[in-house]
């Protein structure tokens, strides 16, 4: 069964899909913006299925009447006809997040963000613009230095990658074209925590901090930004409590993501308050609805705790209602438990147990008979392994594939459910729950040096990792066209350098 | 002597040089904007000479005090320091022209132009935008048709090339991605004259008109636009006197060029009124000044007429003051006459005379002795061959090379002047006057068909001419980088088509 049994309508305020992991490269022209985007229509056309697409923003979801309200960007040429609504049987929300300003004053007005293609292009434009301004003959040296002070807020992967890109751009390209300005450039990275790249292994963090120190990038740890002004950014240093002001020509704000206003509105409608994103179950279905799904940065999976269900798990497993679980009974449900509660699996791996039976074994006994109290005790720690998934493209992409697969196999799985036992209910779940498979994460550090944390805590740092990065990012491109363009851009950069034309 | 004996300062409101002949290709993404631009600093750096560059607009020329006043684009970050002035010994004005609206109401507000890179990009953005809007589910068919009505005003090479590009884009790319809209697209070309491409040979004009008719491009000859509205353009048909209104989604205005306001201001200062551009002598020196030069679209050469100087020419030639010119005397000045008055040469070639002696020969006499009256009579028609040079990149480029050459050889030529005799004064001109060498002109007509008019009235039309166009435009690129990029873009388009992402 192919997806052409559905009538699909895609609504997006842009008419292209952007490969966002390459956006930091777009900011300095290492890769062109057009090389990381693919028109939605060209993607849907290749699917061979008739998919409607509208370039519009969804501003309201009416889940009572199964309707979404959309608006094409306002334009006088349409004379009020830019509003329309779409009825749905199923709704998939994948609206992403937006930059989180933590309500810091001045951020929205004076800082640049790095979530959308046009934001990346604006940064590129501004960088070159600042060099041109700093070249004006009328400007005193102090002013030149102010203009060429670049401040990056947030030491996560995006902020670090941008700082590294900017440093490379200045060193490799701008220093040749603006030789007199080279010494006035200053890059400052403000991180509120104790280290940059703190979601990475300590070895990577250390390497990155040392490399940035060698590169002359001023990394200020424990710096909480309290205000962004037009020409100045103010931070509070945690250690000393001191307030420090740094003049800037440009601030790039990259401190993680928050929920978009439309999503917040919808969360209110559903009674989901005080959550950072739309809460879904493990099948990506939005809690409080039965035909709305959410994935990517706008959603978060509310993984059911084992401890919440411990009584029903035990009673489902204890088929003969003896109040005791023996090995045979246990073996029959162990697969379902692991399917339904992935934290169990992670816990076992972490503690180097080969299967769940090891968890229940008392010393070296070969037979296992446990009661509910013992069962509870044995599983009491597994929930500690529950983690929110990171807000990365990797997670979103896997969720997209998972959900498409579910829809494509909906009829089949209605008849032959393939999911785990419903411990609280009867029968089985139609599908296996979504399971994220972490394939590793890169942190490009500039100068052809990249760090990577691969599954199993493998660490790889250096130029060979940069080449691994090149090949992974090439293979992840959405089309052969963009693959060809991205590789072409890298080649062009090696031969001719980056373009500094202010377009 | 290299140009490093000069202290050179370049002022330009953009920090890049754009290869404008490819702008029509940029409008539809056949070629990317970045592929046709090269940063000024990268060009000046390659020269090996230290050249200052400022990204600023020159808003005033003070020729009394040899000073130009410049302003970097206004920005709060500079706090008033965006103004500066530069003293000069020599000034070269090469500010180009601007689109001529003939003061037609609404053009400035509602039409697109095609002179700058950002204008070409705006057209590209608008074309895709119109297709996206026309796809909205809420829109009735009539509205879709209005949005997809593209009107091009001006049947010169730029207007024709844009119409052809747009037609190809719709046919080759958009028809695939927006199959339901294909039939609603309408391209209309309004030309006030009797034919499109009227500066070309009749065979080319005919071919182009026939091709456009086959392509379904509605060419309306003798249509004078009287008003451009937001959604409607109004034209007067010369033959019937009727006023016709055409609804439009986009109007592209391409009816030739006019003078920029700063140039007009400077012309007033010099007393050059009622002229379409800065008037220079044949050495590109601005009339009424002795250290200011002008070239390209902002300038026009005031070629001295033979008839104005006929008396002094005769007396300079008549060395022995006999009142008669014999062959020997004549031969001594003929080279100077042809150098100083290029129209003579053009006249001879046009009338298939092998040298100027033929002009003076009475029937088959071998010896020539003429008096002033006969001399006047014989040369009376040569001035008819004087023509203003076209406002093309070809002319501007040749003028640039010529002027650079003059400056580089200034000292040498002061000592050993190489120009023609000064007929009105004494001695010789330092340099030969600028002489334009027409290498031919292309008119791309879409569908891999190009027409070319080559020197000697050679005409070439078809696909082979398209390939000639590709090779000439490749060779004319300003750097190896852009050459590589432009060819890459053409290749990409053949393989993957044009990108319709709205960036």
Automatic annotation (TrEMBL), chains A, B:
It is a peripheral membrane protein. It is found in: Mitochondrion inner membrane; Peroxisome. Its main location: mitochondrion. Residues 305-340 form the EF-hand domain. GO terms for molecular function: calcium ion binding; NADH dehydrogenase (quinone) (non-electrogenic) activity; oxidoreductase activity. It holds the Pfam family NDH2_C. Belongs to the NADH dehydrogenase family. Its cofactor is FAD. It catalyses: a ubiquinone + NADH + H(+) = a ubiquinol + NAD(+); a quinone + NADH + H(+) = a quinol + NAD(+). Keywords: Calcium, FAD, Flavoprotein, Membrane, Metal-binding, Mitochondrion, Mitochondrion inner membrane, NAD, NADP, Oxidoreductase, Peroxisome, Transit peptide. Its EC number is 1.6.5.9. This is NADH:ubiquinone reductase (non-electrogenic). One of its GO terms (cellular component) is mitochondrion. It comes from the Eukaryota.
